[in-house]
Amino acid sequence: MTAAGHNLLRGKVGIITGALDEKSIAWHVAEKAHAEGAQILLTNAPVALRLGAPKALSEKLQAPLVPADLTQLSDIEKLYEAAVAHFGRPIDFLLHSVGMSLNIRKGRSYPEIDYDFYLKTLDVSAISFHKLLQIGRQKGAFARGGSIVALSYIAAQRVFPKYGDMADAKALLESITRSFGYWLGKELGVRVNIVSQSPTPTTAGSGIAGFEAMYNYAQKMSPLGNAPADACADFIVMLFSDYTRYVTMQTLYHDGGFSMMGISEEILS
Ligand SMILES: NC(=O)c1ccc[n+]([C@@H]2O[C@H](COP(=O)([O-])OP(=O)(O)OC[C@H]3O[C@@H](n4cnc5c(N)ncnc54)[C@H](O)[C@@H]3O)[C@@H](O)[C@H]2O)c1
User: Fold this and answer.
1) Per residue in 81-135, pLDDT tens?
2) Which DSSP string do the residues of 30-49 spell out, in sequence order?
3) Probe ligand 1: pick from 17, 41, 43, 98, max atoms within 8 Å of CB?
4) I need a labelling partner for 128 at 20 to 30 A (CA). Which of 59, 66, 193, 265 fits?
5) How far is the CA of 98 from the centre of ligand 1 (A)?
6) Does 2 reside within a domain?
7) pTM
8) Measured from the CB, is residue 72 less than 6 Å from ligand 1?
């Protein structure tokens, strides 16, 4: 059962990063936000836009598609300029849905990471969020009372060896959520939260060695089962809506109960 459109985001405008293909969590968020009455602008790294899928989504949702490498300050500046010009006003919501580790891609385990790759992991997967928030604030691109959401994984708190240096990136990302959430809350009444999502079969997710085993383990451990991407999108749309006006600086677990479990009967049997 999925939620139908209720105009939860009617009149709101926002930016969605990271919709690569129809498996992407951001893709589901874009479709749901649109169905809930929002106008959106899509962005992804120039290299990702060479694939056809983001363009198809942009056409389907009548949402401009702006290339931006989110590690590059000048790209982020242009992104906000394009958004404010397109909407004619500051944005009400922003989704950070970006992650990449060259150490994982090249099969380097946590004790053997390459430090140039490590810096890249932290930059793409965590510091890009700080950059988006810093430049958005400087440019006056965030509307009062808006909502900003990023995505995390429970490896920020617990050890999942194959998640490698992405665990450190997620811990940093959760800290940026809290620390920047203070400033944007005080100054603009803007909420900043991060959703810690179940393993999800996307391009980024499936790139983790042993993803299937992690997925199956979490499925057996979680009383509700793993949360799919479209349910994650429902939750994020609610966080963008006015129904969560006083929720901020939180790591919110959208994981079917996994994070509260010690062991389950399915694992024991
Ligand atoms: N899939 C999972 O199991 C899972 C679980 C928890 C959290 N997450 C998080 O969800 C978010 C979205 O990932 P996904 O699973 O939908 O995978 P995905 O591969 O569909 O999305 C990742 C996106 O990051 C973009 N990206 C990479 N480098 C970039 C850069 N320099 N600038 C701009 N964009 C860049 C990619 O083009 C892609 O669109 C990530 O933060 C990921 O860590 C995923």
Assistant:
1) 999 999 999 999 999 999 999 999 999 999 999 999 999 999 999 999 999 999 9
2) HHHHHHTT-EEEEEE-HHHH
3) 98
4) 59
5) 4
6) no
7) 0.98
8) no
